[in-house]
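Dear Dr. H.,

I hope your travels went smoothly. While you were away I took the liberty of generating a structure for the chain from your last submission, since the lab meeting agenda had it listed for discussion. I wanted you to have the full record in hand beforehand rather than looking at slides cold. The sequence, exactly as received, is reproduced here:
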Amino acid sequence: MNQESLRTLIRHKIHNGRLPHDSITRVWSSPSDGELCDACDTILSKDQLVMEGTTLAPGRKPFHFHVRCFQIWDDERRVGV
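The corresponding predicted structure, in token form, is as follows:
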């Protein structure tokens, strides 16, 4: 997916609540185990790092991102602030 399409998709997911608008309270990375990226909806391959983060929202599962998707999400969530 090209950069602008990915940015638009992430912006839309922030707007409709599928991705958090406020910061993630805890973030860590580790080798992927085949997780689905919450930003671009594609599988992280086993040779990639997964960025995993949690929010303070009760009952929310951790979010999983490709490194690039995490960086774009972080940029886009700040634009709306």
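Two observations you may find useful: The first strand starts at residue 26 and ends at 31. The helical segments are 3-15, 67-79.

With kind regards,
E. W.
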